[in-house]
UniProtKB/TrEMBL annotation:
Keywords: Signal. Residues 1-33 form the signal peptide. Residues 47-183 form the Cytochrome P460 domain. It holds the Pfam family Cytochrome_P460. It comes from the Bacteria. This is Cytochrome P460. It comes from Enterovibrio nigricans DSM 22720.
Length: 208
């Protein structure tokens, strides 16, 4: 009788342990799937630590070169999360779960000891782009776009709702080189596409 009871307790314990292990695994998988961003009730919580992600470039379309009416006159410092960068350099594709952060920086001084140019001034905004079948099942390419910038560009919000698809995706769909992303303007992404270890820099002598 005691033996049967002990066996029953042992089996019960093993089942509980297996269930706990399975639950932990599922939670871990969910955490990994969104380890660089969290979306709650349709709003993106402002990511942190993105300046330590992979930097891919800084395009700028200043007012001076666009009749004083540039749509995006500031510098855009752009970063991609490390997991998506690893996937990009191996496959040349953006994985489901990719997040790209864009810091907006004003055009500051136009004169430096090196000569005239467009130099970065102050931070004036923060934006994000996310590719997710789970959160954006009906958006073109499963991409959605967010802005944490306040209207006066003096601060950033803690959460952001996605823009209507038509306000961003149409341009990305028609002009972006890779999967709604303007990789043609980001040399790190352009040079690293599907290049494996060589994508990390310093492994080849050619600059083309």
């Amino acid at each position: 009788m005691e033996l049967k009871k002990a066996m029953s307790v042992s089996i019960h314990s093993n089942v509980l342990f297996s269930l706990a292990f399975l639950s932990a695994g599922l939670l871990s998988m969910n955490a990994m799937a969104e380890e660089y961003f969290t979306i709650k009730d349709g709003e993106l919580l402002r990511p942190t630590g993105y300046r330590e992600w992979v930097y891919v470039g800084t395009p700028v379309t200043p007012n001076d070169m666009n009749n004083g009416k540039a749509a995006f006159p500031e510098h855009h410092n752009v970063y991609i999360d490390p997991k998506s960068w690893a996937h990009w350099k191996e496959t040349g594709e953006f994985r489901d779960g990719t997040i790209i952060m864009k810091e907006l920086v004003s055009v500051g001084s136009k004169v430096a000891v090196s000569g005239n140019g467009y130099f970065q001034g102050e931070y004036i905004g923060l934006e994000a782009t996310i590719k997710s079948k789970k959160h954006n099942p009906n958006e073109p390419g499963n991409w959605a776009y967010y802005s944490f910038s306040t209207p006066d560009h003096s601060s950033i919000t803690k959460v952001a709702k996605p823009f209507p698809a038509a306000s961003c995706n149409a341009c990305h769909q028609s002009a972006a080189a890779d999967d709604f992303v303007f990789t043609q303007y980001y040399p790190v992404l352009r040079a690293g596409k599907g290049k494996g270890e060589a994508a990390s820099g310093g492994f080849t002598s050619t600059l083309k």
